[in-house]
Amino acid sequence: MNSLYVGSEVGQLKQVIVHRPGTELLRLTPETKEALLFDDLLWVRRAQEEHDMFTQALDDAGAEVLHLDALLRETLSEPAAKEYVLDHTFDERVHGPAAVPALRHMAESMSVAELAELVIGGMTKRELLERIDEPRSVVLHSMAADDLVVSALPNHLFARDASCWVYGGVAVSSMNKPARMREAVTYEAIYRWHPRFTSTDFSRWSEGISDGRATVEGGDVLVLGNGAVLVGMSERTTPQGIERLAKRLFAGGQADRVVALRLPVARHFMHLDTVMTMVDEHSFIEYAGLGDVASYTITPRGLSTGDGDPELNIVGHEPGHAHRAIADALGLHGLRILTAEQDVHSAAREQWDDGCNALAVAPGVVIAYDRTPTSNAFLRESGVDVIEVPGGELGRGRGGPRCMSCPTLRDPVA
């Protein structure tokens, strides 16, 4: 087994990447929040306090916690990594050819700490002009003083989505929404150049950054174990993306079956883990409003005679047979589906507040927000140990403990 390996959704969690809220969330305003994919403004100081308690819970559960901003600072000390990040931060198609040379020169003169802050936190025109004289640029001249010259990445809070580890490798995500596309650059640089990752052996299950319409985000990917993977076909993950991911996983020789669930394309069904997460070897939390969804089982048909990519064998299942398809992929006779009994309005509120977005830290032990008491009580009654963390502010970002975590090392299950 490689030293970096995620063998399941519920085995002992040993190492995980998170991102503590920072300057990037201060860039949210009533005018910018929708473009940045937030429904509300977070009180950042309180969100930081809550996130600190979340990371303490991870530490107490035995997981080594890696902070994304620290990893990025350390990565940017490598010249090739710095060049790569600058190439993908300053783009003539965004900033115009007149401004790019001056912007890049400014960034090259920054310390690694300042550059990491710029990459994640963004920079306004006002902040730019505190450092350099305004370049002769139509793009910059037409911007207001507090417009962002470099866009912020507030969704880095949800560390799960821009990359996901599947068995002995990682898929750097081709993100679906423009506001999140540069998040993949951060992870690509870290995995390619940070000493922690260059010193170990792992595979890459995707090309990352931009795969056109073939997008896959980590919140839709569940590592079931024993070579099986569950993927949600959602608002953010497309059928094209699932097929391409499946081919890459099969070519790598560790995964041999992928079950895809066709979710409703809606904001409140953003990713699979907003409606369904795994809590032990055979049990899932599931939102009552998910209903019967169509599903597909994808397996390799063997190697083609062309470029060596596996051909795909795809079997479609009628709505109502998704649980059977997942159980078959796991080699089980059936699943235990945990859905608390409550009225439709209460169920919808708890799902919106991430009641289904629990993070397993060991089989039958999960971290969940305290703002979903009915779901948490039902899990406890079902024999699941629930570690509650505050989510009063973090939960306003529409992402729970699973969303905020990117496991890089997790035990398989028997």
Automatic annotation (TrEMBL):
The gene is arcA. It comes from Garicola koreensis. It is found in: Cytoplasm. Belongs to the arginine deiminase family. This is Arginine deiminase. One of its GO terms (molecular function) is arginine deiminase activity. GO terms for cellular component: cytoplasm. It catalyses: L-arginine + H2O = L-citrulline + NH4(+). The active site is at 403 (amidino-cysteine intermediate). The keyword Phosphoprotein does not apply. Keywords: Arginine metabolism, Cytoplasm, Hydrolase.
